[in-house]
Amino acid sequence: MSVKRVLFSVVCSLFLTVPAAAVADVLVELPAPQKSGGLSVLEALGSRHVERAFDERILPMQEVSNVLWAACGVNREDGRLTVPTALNRQLVGVYAVLPDGVYRYDAKQNVLEQVLKGDGYLKTYANGAPMVLLHAAQESERYSAMHVGSMYENVALYCASAGLANVMKAQETDKLEGKLPLPDGWKIYMIQPVGYPAKAD
Fold first, then answer.
1. What's the predicted TM-score (pTM) here?
2. Are the C-beta atoms of 4 and 86 separated by less than 8 Å?
3. Per-residue pLDDT tens for 160-174?
4. N or C: which end of the chain has fewer CB within 10 A?
């Protein structure tokens, strides 16, 4: 294969992984994710559960960074992710719905790129949670559903370790259809509100 053809293939592959809104009005640099501490894997498995009631407290940006890194962050120097993907194609991604809009998580740069502005999007999904993850993947990829399952389970285990609440919802994933600038052929597979558990009365 010629050098030009190889370069063209690489460029096309990169283009597929970048949402349509390539220029962001707002870029938020996240603190480096914390990669130590918390419960052991076995303790987190023992504590993992679903909670549907949330406290309205906003998550600090450190927790936002940790949650997103657990979902789909870079965990090795060669750019591989916390979530496995077939042939390391990495045709997965996560969006964070926050009080002021929707952001795409750029795992390689560890930044949030705002793709939708406004305070109404969180109310669309949140059940009172201060953040909602939208787990996305390429629809034509054979293993997309399994990759997304790995993403939301990573988050669930992190939440168990960090004392956060979360719930997975497969319904109403199309509420932002036509608004959220996903790459061509991608869709939202799962919604995952995340926050502090509701305080006991």
1. 0.84
2. no
3. 999 999 999 998 899
4. C
